[in-house]
Amino acid sequence: MSNARLARPGWILAVVVLLGSMLLMNFKLPTAAASGEWQAQTYDPNKPGLELNPLKGFLPFSKQPSDTVDPNGGFPHSMEWFYVSLRDLMTGWNTYNWAPLDAYLNDIASRGNQAAFRVYVDYPGRSTGIPQFLLDGGLLTRDYDQNGNHDTATHSLAPDWNDANLNLALRQFVSALGARYDGDPRIGFVTAGLYGFWGEWHTWPYNTDPTNWEMNQTNRDALLTAFKDAFRTTHVLARYPYSASTASLKNAFGYHDDSFSYETLFQHDWDFWNLVTQNGLQNIWQTHPIGGEFYPPLQQDPTFWQHWPNQNGQSFQTSVETTHASWLMYDRVFKSPLPDETASRNALRAHKMLGYTLYNSAVQLPDSPKSSLQVNVKLQNKGAAPFYYNWPVEFGVLNASNVWVKSLGTAAWNLKSIQPGGTDYSFSYSANHNLAPGDYKLVMRVVNPLAGGKTLRFANTRQDANKDGWLTLTGFRVSASATTSTVLPDPPVTPGAQAPTPLVFDNFNDAYQYNTLRKNDMGGGYWGDGSSSVDGTSVTLNGVSWWDATFSAAETNVDLSAYTYLVYVVKSSAGGSSFNVTMWDAGGAKGTKTVTATTAYQTIRIPLADFSGFDKTTARKFKHSAFTGSFTIDEIRFE
To answer: What pTM did the predictor assign?
Structure first.
């Protein structure tokens, strides 16, 4: 018995060791970077709060400041739109009443939103916006019955747009407006209104002799110059790129499309992006914002969002990706409920794809002396457009229990430089922290200059992970001799409907001659006539009348059932050049669509459903024909 008692502790120890070994075999420590190394961060496109990011997305018409109930709470937003009459703001030569404008701005700011607005002189169906002192001075005015002007009890009046006193007053007003409001944190964007119906810089149908009411070029240039000179911080959006006569003046503004997804692309000479490209402004979005209004009749269409892509109007997604639009007036979605969950989900998807989506792709905190730290941050933009303001970037410290410790100050980073795409933009910040030894977390935020304004959130799993409104970058440890980084666990990616990873047919990163059998990225080959040239990232086709491409070397079936679109990233040496594409399945040719290119790269999405009868599960090849012009193709893929 004594021997048995003595043996039992050894038996127990053996069991403990065995169980411990089994547990260790099934437990994996997270892969941890050594102190000072780069730490990859996790992208989270469905992170809650991204739909409320400032200065982007759909925006409603703001309520009247005197109204007590805000009707716009049914859909997320961070901006509001309003019109205000010049008559209400300008009371005499260089005398102003800013109270009506401030009332709107203060009311909108009280909800944490920023404003986009336009000042008008002639708004059909409303009382005149012409200042009384100009009428008293003998300004010529015209009544009219177009644009619903006689559909209400009040009628607007069109002034003589070339009257010298009127034009002097307009320029004085713009100068005073900029002096008071340029850089005002309550304002997101100003549109260059005043001239034309609704301040939209046109007088149609009164724009041809004998009833041509248009402002002449000299006065248009002078008015736009006044806007350019008055606003050096706040972005101003003009309506038409042809309104200015010089390249420097054209390039001083962003632009807004008042018929978005209807007359945006390339069906007519007057369509928005056609006018932009005709004036050499296809890259203006990289420095100046694109905005506008979702075409009002499409707003009234209850079926618009029940399909993706939309079946009425022009493709919303293609319109956003082509124009790089940041914001759109879309009052209907705020005032009337959408018909079902599918429509609500698609409208929210459209809202979020406008503008920027900033993502912290990696962070590094090099080993530093005890009382200081340096952080290196890589940022990407997963959205359609830049963030157009250099808001301050603040750094803060939490302790190990996520209690706020202190701010480390702000950095003046060039956030405007972060262009859409997969490129990392590198930034750094250093500070003396003077913290006691212990474990801490380093957090970061972009500071909205509007007090109480909406938070700019990053598309990261660590956004809001430890403190609301802040992105957690990394952990760090302060010892008696050094500050070193530590690795924090990543929260899970937010669940959400995810599109399949695009299937690249060919990104043309390998030289080839396409009229001989040469593999594309899916293993198929090319045949055709004409000639080609390759620069390592794209292929240029010249003198082509036909061009075949197969999905596999043996033309066996390829299953494309997970994909919705055939996508070309393409441009042409001449706008309006086109070619046809026909999809083939195991049963032969099935449907033909036309690809029309511009002189700037454009992402063209063709719904596979548009190829009548095409069986996505037995895809074989596609044939290109009816070429007019030469083309440079950056990529062909399926999404």
So the answer is: 0.79
